[in-house]
Design brief:
3-stranded antiparallel β-sheet, 15% strand, alpha/beta, globular
C-alpha cells in the first residue's frame, strides 16, 4: 500500500492547488495567509486527482489487454536469484510507449527506508490495482462502489477509536479531497509510466497464479518458495544498519499495492514465520489446511480478483529460530473492507505458539484513510497500532491523541533516511514502523 504523494514521493509532485487546499483545511490553519488568496474547493482538488488516476488507469488497461495470453514464468540466474519473465515483451500504448521488457525483478529497494521491498499495482481493483480497501477513497470507482465501501469502513473506524483513555472523534463520511488513496504517489508521476506499470502487472499476474499453485514442500505455495529465494538473494546492506539492531534485517511489504486476498496474506505470514527469530529457520513445517473464503467486493472487483481461497496458516512443527531474522512491515487498508476483513487478518497473522505471539516480526499497520484523521486502533492479535498522515498545522492537536510517534526520517540532514533518523529511544537509526507495534506512527504531510 503506497502513501500520499507529498510524504514519500519526489519533491513538488503535488500541485499548488493540492498544497493550498491541504493547508487551508488543516486543523488550526488560518488559510493561505494572503488576504487575496482563495482556498481551492474540495471538488477542484478531487477533480485534479481524478484526472491523474484516469491517466494511470488507461495505461494499465492497455497493458493488461496486451498481456492477455502471454506466458509468465520464474527464471533463475547463475547466482540463484529469481526474476519474472514473459514470453513476448508488452509495449505500452502510443501515448505512453515505454516498457517492452521481457524480465522484471521480484524485489525492489526503498532508498529512504534502507530495505528491500515487494510492490504490486496500487489502486482499487476496478482500475486493476491490488488495493481492495482503496475503493471508497478513489473517485475513479463508481459512486455506488465508493458508497458501499464507505458504509463498511466507517463502522470500523468508529468501533476501534479508543486510544488509551481517549475516545477519538466519530467519522461520518469519506471526503475524496482528503482521502490518502486519491493522491497515492504510486498512481502518478514515474509510477504511471508503461515501464513501471508493466513490471508491477507482471508481478501481480505471477503472484495471483503462484499463490494458488502448490510448492514442492507441503503446506506452502510457489509464491512462498520463490519469495524465499528472492529474499535470500537480496542485498540488505547490513553493514549500513545501525549496530544497535544487531543481526536483525528489515523488509518492506508493499511500497505499492496491498494484501489483495486472504490467501496472499497467508503466504506472506508463512514467509515471515520462516525468518522468525524464535520459530523460523531449520525445522519449520506447515500443515496443508485450507478454508474457502474471499474478500467481499462488487461484481466487478470479484471479476478482476477471482474466487481466491484463503489458506489457514497451521504450523506443523516450529523451527529452531532463524539465525539472521527479518522484521517485516506492511501498511494496509484492508480494514476498510469491513469487520470481516479485520477479523480475517487477525486469524491469519495472530496465530500463537504455546501462547506466545508470532507476529512480533510482522507488523501489519492499519493506515488512516484521510489526511488529518486517526486510523483504527484494533486491539486484536496480529494487528499493530495505526499510521496516520497529519499536516504540520494539525499535529499539535493530534500528537498523543491520534498518534504516538512522529516519523523523523525527513529531518535527516543528508536526506530522508530511516537508518539516519532518531528513534523513540533517542538513538540514531529508527525502525519504529517495524518494531514498535504498540506505537501509532505519523508521517508528516510535507507542503
Amino acid at each position: 500500500m503506497a502513501a500520499i504523494k507529498p510524504h514519500l514521493a519526489q519533491d513538488d509532485e503535488a500541485s499548488y492547488a493540492e498544497k493550498a487546499y491541504w493547508r487551508c483545511s488543516s486543523a488550526g490553519s488560518a488559510g493561505l495567509g494572503d488576504a487575496d488568496a482563495v482556498c481551492p474547493t474540495p471538488q477542484e482538488i478531487a477533480g485534479q486527482a481524478h484526472a491523474e488516476l484516469m491517466g494511470t488507469a488507461w495505461v494499465r488497461a492497455a497493458l493488461i489487454e496486451r498481456m492477455q495470453g502471454r506466458k509468465i514464468w520464474i527464471d533463475y540466474d547463475s547466482d540463484g536469484e529469481p526474476s519474472i519473465a514473459i514470453d513476448k515483451p508488452v509495449q505500452g500504448p502510443a501515448w505512453n510507449p515505454t516498457g517492452g521488457s521481457r524480465r522484471t525483478t521480484i524485489l525492489g529497494w526503498t532508498t529512504k527506508m534502507g530495505a528491500p521491498s515487494f510492490s504490486l499495482p496500487a489502486g482499487a481493483p476496478t482500475m486493476g490495482g491490488a488495493c481492495p480497501g482503496a475503493t471508497a477513497g478513489q473517485t475513479i470507482a463508481s459512486p455506488e462502489a465508493r458508497q458501499a465501501q464507505a458504509r463498511l469502513l466507517m463502522p470500523v473506524l468508529n468501533k476501534y477509536n479508543q486510544h488509551g483513555n481517549r475516545t477519538l472523534p466519530v467519522v461520518r463520511s469519506v471526503n475524496a479531497a482528503k482521502a490518502v488513496c486519491e493522491f497515492c504517489y504510486a498512481e502518478g508521476g514515474q509510477y504511471a509510466t508503461s515501464g513501471v506499470q508493466n513490471a508491477q502487472l507482471m508481478r501481480f499476474a505471477w503472484a495471483q497464479r503462484a499463490v494458488g499453485r502448490p510448492g514442492h514442500v507441503p503446506g506452502v505455495s510457489e509464491f512462498y518458495i520463490v519469495m524465499l529465494d528472492a529474499i535470500d538473494a537480496a542485498d540488505f546492506k547490513e553493514n549500513k544498519e545501525p549496530k544497535h539492531f544487531g543481526n536483525h534485517r528489515f523488509f518492506r511489504i508493499h511500497d505499492s499495492g496491498d494484501f489483495y486476498s486472504p490467501a496472499y496474506l497467508a503466504e506472506w505470514k508463512k514467509i515471515t514465520l520462516h525468518y522468525h527469530p524464535r520459530y523460523g529457520g531449520e525445522g519449520l513445517r506447515f500443515a496443508s489446511t485450507k478454508t474457502s473464503t474471499q474478500y467481499a467486493g462488487t461484481p466487478r472487483e470479484q471479476q478482476i480478483q477471482g474466487d481466491v481461497g484463503a489458506s489457514e496458516v497451521v504450523i506443523a512443527q516450529v523451527g529452531k529460530g532463524h539465525p539472521n531474522p527479518i522484521f517485516f512491515w506492511a501498511p494496509t487498508r484492508v480494514w476498510a473492507k469491513g469487520e470481516h476483513e479485520v477479523q480475517q487478518v487477525s486469524r491469519i497473522n495472530g496465530i500463537r505458539v504455546g501462547g506466545d505471539s508470532t507476529w512480533d516480526n510482522f507488523a501489519i499497520r492499519p493506515s488512516g484513510y484521510h489526511i488529518d484523521q486517526h486510523g483504527p486502533f484494533i486491539p486484536l492479535d496480529g494487528w499493530a497500532a495505526p499510521s496516520t498522515v497529519y499536516a504540520h498545522d494539525s499535529k499539535d492537536q493530534a500528537e498523543g491523541v491520534a498518534y504516538d510517534w512522529d516519523c523523523l526520517a525527513y529531518a535527516v540532514e543528508k536526506g530522508p533516511s530511516c537508518r539516519g533518523a532518531e528513534n523513540p529511544e533517542g538513538q540514531v537509526g529508527c525502525r519504529a514502523c517495524w518494531k514498535h507495534t504498540d506505537l501509532a506512527v505519523n508521517y508528516t504531510l510535507h507542503l
